């Protein structure tokens, strides 16, 4: 399955406003719950997992985050993409004491063990491509963000 098959238009956010990562998790979880992608335990568990296993990744030119939680909280698979209006602090995956200014997040909702490794591999390839990351960060609208993701 291709990475682009996991992107859901209703879960793509351009210039998303969030006070901090907790606010971001709440907004994303509520929207995914409303759409039937997750159950009501997703939010608390994505927050818990992020506290234990941070997902911030420092790239060459910016930082991204890939928050997720266990399959049991996901009804339908998805990848939610958020380009933040203002950067949000996430702890680094490599050093939990390091704080990263994240401008782009990919929230994963995966419930099939075989797809998890494949999706993470494809996503890591994507975020290591500076041109593609810059295109996402510089999208001028939600429609442009969606178009870029469809062309991956």
TrEMBL record:
SUPFAM superfamilies, alphabetized: Phoshotransferase/anion transport protein (SSF55804)
Protein name, entry field: PTS sugar transporter subunit IIA
Species annotation: Peptostreptococcus equinus
Domain PTS EIIA type-2: 5-152
Record has Transport as a keyword: yes
Keywords of the record: Sugar transport, Transport
């Amino acid at each position: 399955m291709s990475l682009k098959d996991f992107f859901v238009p209703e879960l793509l956010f351009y210039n998303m406003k969030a006070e901090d990562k907790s606010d971001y998790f709440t907004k994303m979880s509520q929207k995914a719950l409303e759409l039937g992608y997750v159950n009501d335990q997703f939010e608390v568990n994505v927050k818990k997992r992020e506290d234990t296993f941070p997902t911030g990744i420092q790239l060459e030119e910016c930082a991204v985050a890939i928050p997720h939680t266990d399959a049991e909280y996901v009804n339908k698979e998805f990848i939610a993409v958020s380009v933040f209006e203002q950067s949000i602090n996430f702890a680094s995956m490599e050093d939990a004491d390091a704080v990263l200014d994240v401008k782009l997040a990919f929230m994963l909702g995966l419930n099939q063990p075989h797809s998890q490794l494949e999706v993470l591999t494809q996503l890591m390839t994507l975020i290591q491509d500076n041109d593609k990351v810059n295109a996402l960060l510089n999208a001028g609208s939600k429609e442009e963000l969606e178009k870029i993701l469809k062309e991956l």
